[in-house]
Task: inverse folding
């Protein structure tokens, strides 16, 4: 769960935003951070919503936890099999 929180918090921290439109969140994961393919970024968003770590309000995503409490290690990058690890 901590790894998922790190991944979720990154787009908000990078954009210095309290909320992001769904597409901007996915774009940040896929193209700004270059962590995932667009399809995988959508899956990350869906999993985060299911887990209650993201909330959707008026078309914008908001983290449902304090992103400032999440530390992103320097040069953090989730493993390529990130979503597969979450399924286990």
Result:
């Amino acid at each position: 769960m901590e790894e998922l929180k790190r991944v979720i918090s990154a787009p908000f921290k990078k954009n210095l935003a309290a909320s992001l439109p769904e597409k901007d969140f996915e774009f940040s994961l896929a193209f700004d951070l270059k962590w995932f393919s667009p399809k995988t970024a959508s899956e990350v968003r869906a999993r985060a919503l299911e887990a209650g770590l993201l909330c959707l309000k008026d078309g914008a995503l908001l983290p449902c936890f304090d992103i400032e409490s999440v530390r992103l290690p320097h040069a953090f990058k989730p493993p390529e099999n990130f979503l597969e690890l979450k399924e286990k």
